[in-house]
Design goal:
12% strand, two-stranded antiparallel sheet, alpha+beta
């Protein structure tokens, strides 16, 4: 599943995260399997937001280094 993760910007300040099967079954469960969510519901916890912001800032700095 890790190799299938895709992240894309959305209008505004968000991102869309998609993961190929069987990730959706882990997130939502099935009639035969209880949900084992990969991502939290209702938004990311504060520590996740901080880590994502840090990683995005580092990647942006790296991608734009040397640009005048």
């Amino acid at each position: 599943m890790r190799a299938s993760v895709r992240v894309a910007p959305t209008p505004g300040a968000g991102v869309a995260i998609t993961i190929d099967d069987p990730a959706k079954f882990h997130q939502t469960g099935t009639v035969n399997m209880v949900a084992r969510p990969i991502l939290p519901y209702g938004g990311f916890p504060a520590p996740w937001n901080a880590a994502i912001k840090q990683a995005a800032s580092e990647q942006f700095r790296e991608a734009t280094s040397g640009i005048d």
